[in-house]
């Protein structure tokens, strides 16, 4: 069963709001209401989404890092459950809660209920055989809640800055939201995404024009750009699976590198030592297979 949020901080609105050919994408082998199973990155040729461009994508690889794959294959399942913190920021009414609810609960509410302070969901994944959780923090866009919400920015492995494709001003504000979130985190410790929401509300022509600006912003922010619709669900599962895969890989690499001398030893019948990109096999165990998924 999915773990649900402990702080149901959504409340009634206090007042009416004034208001890539090379992209690395993921295959879902199975998707249930409570768990997403991810087995591999897929090559660009398999992409059906045309609106992404190489400029919008930071990583072009086709597979998980070799060390990560090997570590997952050799895992005895006794490793602690991995969890990464994701923080979602952006102006009020841009659709942060709707995006999270579409992914975590597969629902969409037309009615706007402002987030008060923060809220969070935990979503379970299985990535190349390893259980993995994303803790997704939904923060309030309203100015008056900013100081409460910013207290939760710390320790974010992923920062998602959200804007409304139908309201270009909200794109202008994303840099400030990102700056605020980065201030609470170690330099270069977070993946950054720029997400345009409400794709269903804009024509293809408007979307394309806005995306040119968005991709420029994404480059400056060192972010990966995605456009989604919480209403139709377009791209939402793909986006969060991408987030999960990158965060998972990063956390595995960190764990492998944190062992003394950047070396992890994994015992699974034979002893395999992983060091940087080189897999060393003890000579007397030369029959160990190195083939990966
Ligand atoms: N048509 C359409 N409407 C959307 C979409 N996403 C969100 N909305 C609507 O936009 C309004 C605001 O959505 P929320 O998800 O509550 O916005 P938020 O960013 O969480 O707002 P705050 O909690 O104030 O920060 C709601 O009325 C949603 O129904 C979308 O993809 N398409």
TrEMBL record:
<dbReference type="InterPro" id="IPR001806">
    <property type="entry name" value="Small_GTPase"/>
</dbReference>
<keyword id="KW-0547">Nucleotide-binding</keyword>
<comment type="function">
    <text>The small GTPases Rab are key regulators of intracellular membrane trafficking, from the formation of transport vesicles to their fusion with membranes. Rabs cycle between an inactive GDP-bound form and an active GTP-bound form that is able to recruit to membranes different sets of downstream effectors directly responsible for vesicle formation, movement, tethering and fusion.</text>
</comment>
<dbReference type="GO" id="GO:0003925">
    <property type="term" value="F:G protein activity"/>
</dbReference>
<keyword id="KW-0653">Protein transport</keyword>
<keyword id="KW-0460">Magnesium</keyword>
<dbReference type="GO" id="GO:0015031">
    <property type="term" value="P:protein transport"/>
</dbReference>
<dbReference type="Pfam" id="PF00071">
    <property type="entry name" value="Ras"/>
</dbReference>
<protein>
    <recommendedName>
        <fullName>Ras-related protein Rab-36</fullName>
        <ecNumber>3.6.5.2</ecNumber>
    </recommendedName>
</protein>
<comment type="similarity">
    <text>Belongs to the small GTPase superfamily. Rab family.</text>
</comment>
<keyword id="KW-0342">GTP-binding</keyword>
<keyword id="KW-0479">Metal-binding</keyword>
<keyword id="KW-0813">Transport</keyword>
<keyword id="KW-0472">Membrane</keyword>
<dbReference type="GO" id="GO:0005525">
    <property type="term" value="F:GTP binding"/>
</dbReference>
<dbReference type="InterPro" id="IPR050227">
    <property type="entry name" value="Rab"/>
</dbReference>
<keyword id="KW-0333">Golgi apparatus</keyword>
<dbReference type="InterPro" id="IPR027417">
    <property type="entry name" value="P-loop_NTPase"/>
</dbReference>
<keyword id="KW-0449">Lipoprotein</keyword>
<keyword id="KW-0378">Hydrolase</keyword>
<dbReference type="GO" id="GO:0000139">
    <property type="term" value="C:Golgi membrane"/>
</dbReference>
<dbReference type="GO" id="GO:0046872">
    <property type="term" value="F:metal ion binding"/>
</dbReference>
<dbReference type="InterPro" id="IPR005225">
    <property type="entry name" value="Small_GTP-bd"/>
</dbReference>
<keyword id="KW-0636">Prenylation</keyword>
